[in-house]
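To: structure subgroup
Subject: Chain for Friday's discussion

All,

I'm putting the inputs and outputs inline so they're searchable in the archive.
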Amino acid sequence: MARMWPLLFIFMLGQILMRLNGNAAQLGVTASLSIVDSIFFLLFFGGASWWTFQPLRQSLAKSVHPDKSRRFIEANMVDFPWRALKAYLVAGWAFAAYLIIVISLTAISGDYYFSWRMFVALTLNFCFGAGVLGPSLAVAISIVYSTRLRLNMSRQGWFNSLLDDEHSDKHITSSAHRPWLVSFVTGLLPTLILSLYVWLALAGNDIEEHFILSQAMVLLVMSVTSSIVLVLSITRTLKKVTASLETGLKNLANGEFKALVPVLIDDDMGELARGLNTAMKGLQERENLKDSLALAAEIQQGLLPKYEPVIPCYHLKGFQQTCYSVGGDYYDYVKLEDGSIWLIVADVSGKGYPAALTMANLQAMLRGLSTLNWPIEEAANYLNEALCDTLTAGRFVTLFMGKLQPESHSLVWVNAGHVPPLLVNQTEVSRLEASAPPLGLVKGMHYEVARTTLNAGDTLVAYTDGVTETSNRYGNEMYGEARFSQWLRDQSDAPLSSLPESLLEVLTDFGRDDQDDDLTLLCVRREK
């Protein structure tokens, strides 16, 4: 009840004004009766206050284990304005009825002059003051209290959840309705009652006119005082709510997505707070995903060769750029015990995590097969069977796999649906065409090998379709194999190590951006 001191202040103000203007004496209201009225006021509104706040007190008493009582406390918080309105309306109208009966009986039994006009004026005053102003102020003060309580609980770190809308009463808390309610309580309704007072006073005698106009003064003062209290209460609530929203927006702008906005009130501003929390939770999940992607990219980079092997008479260079943090392109060099080396370029259909997982699986199988020293056609057959069993429908892997034998300068290779690597010599550019479908599509395939001899100065470039399918800035033309072949001819005398960087510059000038397909190169040049 201590929080409701504005109610007691306005009630006492009304009693003082009635004593000053003589209406209390006119009705025979003694000081003793005024004290009794004050006691009943405390009983009615104190009881309503106790009933209103009791569920919150019980909830907070159980909040030693907040996770267990959280939903119970939240439900009471959301129901709190509606519960307060019901309690204070009952208390206000009950107290108004008490005042009307007691004061009227006192005036009548004391043989005081008490006409029906005076009775109507007194009844209107009591009904408005106790039945309308009192509950309105009490609800406003209760909302201020609940707002402060929610803010304190949010600072303890466990009342930031998104509250349900099921129990909230939009007619009480909606900011769109709030100005109209305040205007009705402190403006329109008092004006109508004052107009009725004027009509009653003009139609009555001198005693009635003095009494009614005095009551009008009491009503006017109480109405103005109550409007000040209401405006102050609403302003305090709005300051807390807007301050929390402003803090939330600053956190959003600064990328601090873990600091949720407390839902201080269940109106459209509460909906805004819920929306901010939803946005920040989504952004936080996105940040967490970025961390996961960064870790996945780091892991995937660890699967690629960290350096080129040193082979007499040969120079090797690999390069990869993914359009996402992780991708499905793969290249590798695997040295065998007999001194030969596997050269591998693969492209997993799709992008992102699924393709990266398939790529990691492919890398693990290839590394395992390299220890068995199988012929590459048998390795390709095994890979195809394994991928047919593991890949989902519609997914596949294109693969170029060559076995370079430095002593004989021969390259034995298999092309399973991959874009043809280009072999560049002094006179022409040859294509190492695919002779079989990609891996993972048809079970029981038997891949056949082809053999190519590398002469001094020859350059072999195995790549993925991210090179030739790069689109120009207008999106109406691809870079294409013809341009790529011509560029390779022009680079025949350039150092092999500079090819990836030079090609990337050319593709960027042509129109490539970060959203284009993954790009992978594996370059081999026989020096002499």
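Points worth raising on Friday:
Residues 7-248 form one domain.
The radius of gyration is 43 Å.

D.
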